[in-house]
Amino acid sequence: MLAVAGTAHPTGYPLFTxxxxxxxVAWHALGASWAYAANAWTALGGAVAIALLHRLGVALLAPxxxxxxxxxxxxxAIPAAFLVFNPIWTYETTLAEVNAWHVAWxxxxxxxxxxxxxxxxxxxxxxxxxLWGFVCGLGATHHATSVFVVGPLTVALLVVLASRRALRVSxxxxxxxxxxxxxxxxxxxxxxxxxxxxxxxPWLRPGFGGLIEHVxxxxxxxxxxxxxxxPEQAGYLTFLVWPFLFPGLGxxxxxxxRARGLAERAIAWGLAVSALTATAYAFxxxxxxxxxxxxxxxxxxxxxxxxxxxxxxxxxxxxGAKAAAWACGAIALLLWAPWINIGFERVRLFVQFDGxxxxxxxxxxxxxxxxxxxxxxxxxxxERKILDHEKPGIEILxxxxxxxxxxxxxxIAAHGFDPIPPLLHGPGTTTEIELRVNALTPLPVIHFDxxxxxxxxxxKPAAAGDSTAAKR
Length: 472
Hints:
The protein has two domains: about 15-345, no CATH class; about 365-470, no CATH class. It has 19 helices and five strands. By secondary structure, the chain is mainly alpha-helical. The chain has a five-stranded mixed β-sheet, sandwiched between helices. A hairpin with a 4-residue loop joins β3 and β4. Helix content is about 65%, strand content about 5%.
């Protein structure tokens, strides 16, 4: 998607796509593979997020005025050390994904909020309102969960301005106008829906109706309610998220209750409510891999560790607080070795799997065929076809996607027949779709399944109803 400036899954991520496309094209021109360049785009987001997390820790230490610059930098490095090599984080920062940039934006928005709240200068408020609106608009173009940052922090900001009697209609207008500027990037999705790239989200319909469905993530609404991580994810959450998330939420709450002064209370409560609402949402979103939805509250909670430790070192350093700070830093460093090892093991597995998929793809002897891989990973075959220019005459299909109206409509328009058997309901749908396409096309139809390492050529039925298959 990044290589060809295609359309991503809902909610679309237009700015991520446009800037990412420029990035990967530039790196590919310098000799990097498409995959390396795309993963590097995510890694850049991860690096920005870690740098901003350190900066957030420093900013939260501002009320502790007796600490020197080096002490602030060291304390703020502890939260970053707990995140930088955490396998939940490196999973998001070494694959082509959007979540690293979402965390970077979230922390950057928090820093912008803190700066505006602490600046008690009416002459700069109009400019600050415009900046805040623009930052909120950036979040709205990237990830729907940005509402859990924008909402609480905006409310806290309005409370501060109202208490200072500094709130003006012009501020609201400036914020709204500047917030709409990034939203114009959704025009890219509207254009792409009627001018599709080689890689396009198959459910995206042309027109404003299709755009609204895509941007609001309407197709995912049935996932709201419940919490159902896969067994593998449950293990990751138990050992890599919960030990840091829940103490971090506690620290955010503790800092909120002990904050003094209107500005500092607004900052502490804004961050705490943001993290709590984002966490509550993650527990109500029923997906097998929910770990990415905990990253933003995890980062905010870790940042709260810096002012908590700093409070124990001022106005005079206490031995217990110094020991706690040293212990936290040592624990973070001790965790790096096993965490980095998990990262390298993951790399080995990904490379091994990529080699398996490539060998299975190369085993297909046809120049023209339908290849069905009913998995979200079917894009790996698209990579071979589109980016490596291998077997350009083969059409790669996900039978599960063909059950949806828009992919089904596009297939009928391209091939002249409906891939869905009449009166088809219940389990076994994808298999029946493959068999129907096999019966109605003269081209070879292949069932591709990397999980079982099998590539099956479906036999053409000798008579109606024949559904035998021969394994190649």
